[in-house]
From TrEMBL:
Alphabetic keyword roster: ATP-binding, Carbohydrate metabolism, Cytoplasm, Kinase, Magnesium, Metal-binding, Nucleotide-binding, Potassium, Transferase
Designated name of the protein: Ribokinase
Binding site for K(+): 245, 247, 281, 284, 286, 290
GO molecular function: ATP binding; metal ion binding; ribokinase activity
UniProt subcellular location: Cytoplasm
Pfam families per the UniProt record, alphabetical: PfkB
Organism name: Frigoriglobus tundricola
Protein family: Belongs to the carbohydrate kinase PfkB family. Ribokinase subfamily.
Record text on subunit structure and interactions: Homodimer.
Length: 303
C-alpha cells in the first residue's frame, strides 16, 4: 500500500481564440473540467496500476470537494484522510488556452493550504503501515516534514517530488527523501546548475545526493530519466513516441515509480517501468484522463 500526502485541485479549462485583456469579456470555444493537483494525480496513477492507495489531503465543503471525493472513491482510493474543510474552497486552477496553445493559469490553493501537522498526525498509522510515502510541495511544508519524519521512524521509504519548486526545498527535507524526484527545471533551480542532458543531470544529481537525498531520479521529458545513487548511475531513455499532451507526465511517472517501489522493486527497475507508463500518458490528451490502467499495459511493463 501507498500513502500520498498532497494536493487536490479541480482544473477549469477555457479554450479561446486569444487570451483576454484586462477588463475584457471574451467567449470560449470549449470548456472542460479536469481532476488535478499533484497529490491527487500521483495517487490516481498508483491506484490505476493496482496499488492500494490512501490520500492525505484537504478539500473544501463545496461542489468541487464532493466531486473530488466521489472521483477518488471511484478510483478505489481510500478517502479516510481526505478532510472536507469548512469555510475553505477546494483548490482550483483556472486555465485559459488560446488557439496557439499559449495559456494563463491562476491557481488557488484553497483547502490545500490548510493541510496541517494535526491532519498528518491523524494519518500516522496509515503512513507507518505504508510500503511507500509520496509527497510534493503543493501543501504546507510542515505537513510534509511531519509525514516524512513519521515515515523515516517507521522505516517507510519516501518519494519526494520537489514540485512546484517555488523557493526550493527546506534543507531538513533532503535527508528525509529516500528518492528525490525533480524534473529538469526543478533540478536546475535547486542546484543552480544547467540540467538539459543526462550528463548535466548526473552532476546535479550528485549535488543533491550531497545534500542528503539517498537516491535522485531526474526526469528529462522526452530524454527519459536519470537515476543517481552513490554506487551507480543509470540513464533510462524514454521510448520514441508522438507526444500530444505532456501535462501530468511527471505525475504519471511519480505515481508509477511509487507503485513499483511499493511492489518491492529496486529504484532502477521501478524507474524503467515508470518511464514506459509515462510515455503512454503523453500520447493522450488531459492529465488524469491520460493515465493508463493496468489492464491496458503490456506484460513487459508490469510483469
Ligand atoms: P514534468 O511533467 O514534471 O515536466 P517530464 O517532462 O520530465 O516531467 O516528464 C516525466 C516523464 O514523462 C519523463 O521522465 C518521461 O519518462 C515521460 N515523458 C515526458 N515527455 C515525454 C515524451 N515527449 N516522450 C516520451 N516520454 C515522455
Amino acid at each position: 500500500n501507498i500513502c500520498v500526502v498532497g494536493s487536490v485541485n479541480l482544473d477549469l479549462n477555457s479554450y479561446t481564440d486569444r487570451l483576454p485583456a484586462a477588463g475584457e469579456t471574451i467567449h470560449a470555444r470549449r470548456f472542460t473540467t479536469g481532476h488535478g493537483g499533484k497529490g491527487a494525480n500521483q495517487a490516481v496513477m498508483a491506484a490505476r496500476l493496482g496499488g492500494a492507495v490512501a490520500l492525505v489531503a484537504r478539500v473544501g465543503q463545496d461542489l468541487f470537494g464532493r466531486d473530488a471525493l466521489d472521483h477518488f472513491r471511484a478510483e478505489g482510493i481510500s478517502t479516510t484522510h481526505v478532510t472536507p474543510t469548512e469555510g475553505a474552497s477546494t483548490g482550483t486552477a483556472v486555465i485559459t488556452v488560446d488557439a496557439t496553445g499559449r495559456n494563463t493559469i491562476v491557481v488557488s490553493a484553497g483547502a490545500n493550504g490548510l493541510l496541517s501537522v494535526a491532519d498528518v498526525e491523524a494519518a500516522r498509522s496509515t503512513i507507518e503501515s505504508a510500503r511507500v510515502l509520496v509527497c510534493q510541495q503543493e501543501v504546507p511544508s510542515e505537513a510534509n516534514r511531519t509525514a516524512m519524519r513519521i515515515a523515516e521512524q517507521a522505516g517507510v521509504p519516501v518519494v519526494f517530488n520537489p514540485a512546484p519548486v517555488g523557493a526550493g526545498v527546506p534543507a531538513e527535507a533532503y535527508p528525509l527523501a529516500s528518492v528525490l524526484c525533480p524534473n529538469e527545471h526543478e533540478a536546475a533551480l535547486l542546484t543552480g546548475l544547467p540540467v538539459r542532458t543526462p550528463d548535466e543531470a548526473r552532476t546535479a544529481g550528485m549535488e543533491l545526493l550531497g545534500r542528503g537525498a539517498r537516491t535522485v531520479v531526474v526526469t528529462l521529458g522526452a530524454q527519459g530519466c536519470l537515476v543517481v545513487t552513490r554506487e551507480r548511475v543509470e540513464a533510462i531513455p524514454a521510448p520514441d513516441v508522438e507526444a500530444v499532451d505532456t501535462t501530468g507526465a511527471g505525475d504519471a511517472f511519480i505515481g508509477s515509480l511509487a507503485f513499483f517501489l511499493a511492489r518491492g522493486e529496486d529504484v532502477f527497475s521501478a524507474a524503467r517501468r515508470a518511464t514506459q507508463v509515462a510515455a503512454i500518458s503523453v500520447q493522450r490528451p488531459g492529465t488524469q484522463t491520460s493515465f493508463p490502467r493496468v489492464a491496458e499495459l503490456s506484460a513487459s511493463i508490469v510483469d
